Amino acid sequence: MSPDAPLRPRPSRYAAFAARLKDVHKALGDPRIPAQRRAELTKRVLAITALSRHDVTVAAHRLEEFFSELAILAPGAVSTPVSGPADTPSGKNTATQG
What we know:
The chain is an all-alpha fold. It has helices at residues 11-28, 35-52, 56-73. Helix 1 (11-28) packs antiparallel against helix 2 (35-52). The relative contact order is 0.18. The model is unreliable at 82-89 (pLDDT under 50).
């Protein structure tokens, strides 16, 4: 491994992934999704979240695929990614600090 190769993904990847996780939790609260189906979808989100500990890039890709499927199940419940200011007072996602 070369000395200038990054050992971890850039923090911005984590911040973007965390923001999309917030979006997915909002979308899963849509009343048009039956409770049993919501439980299955939540398990998938948890698996994607666990994957992010090992490879956030792959997890982010799977999360976007999940959003595509969710858009079919509950049209209008899913928002597109927005690159705007963070909603935390510090301007950063607190889960990615440290």
